[in-house]
Request: fold
Amino acid sequence: MSTFLHGPFLWYATRAAGLVTLVLLTTAMVLGILNAGRFASRRWPRFVVQGLHRNLSLLALLFLTLHVGTTVVDTYTSIGLPDAIVPFLSSYKRWWLGLGALASDLMITLAVTSLLRQRIGHRLWRLLHWAGYLCWPVAIAHGLGTGTDHSARWVLALTFACIGAVLVSVGYRAVQATPARRLAR
Reply:
């Protein structure tokens, strides 16, 4: 068992889970932006967009748990569970790991408040759900600033593709929100 905790498996698992979390979080972000803009078509009714957004968000949370769990269990690093939860506590890459802990906390806040949506009311849920607009760029910054692959071309390309996808969805939503487009609908 100790060889397993020292071997490269956890290192690879941590990196892979972090990148999968980034892609899932980005996809959930794009769908959330489109859904908030009332995106729908014959092939993509709103309930499909909402369902995908919700399920991909939960899947992102699962991979985030895997990312954090493998990081904490890996004996090669000195990152404990408190470091992964409390922002800027870690002595190892304090700033970048702190951003990761902050993004993680925001993501957990999004999940918990979504589960409590009926109890806390739509207005408070919506206000708290704006944390998603902070969670995603903080997670991007964490990924760009830490990890052994953060400067690899393929990781940078993936990260910039994620940034591009969110920017395109924001642009689409902005165009759809113009008064002329609203009147045409």
Observations:
- The chain has a mean pLDDT of 86.
- The first helix runs from residue 2 to 6.
- The two ends are 61 Å apart (CA to CA).
- DSSP finds ten helices and no strands in the chain.
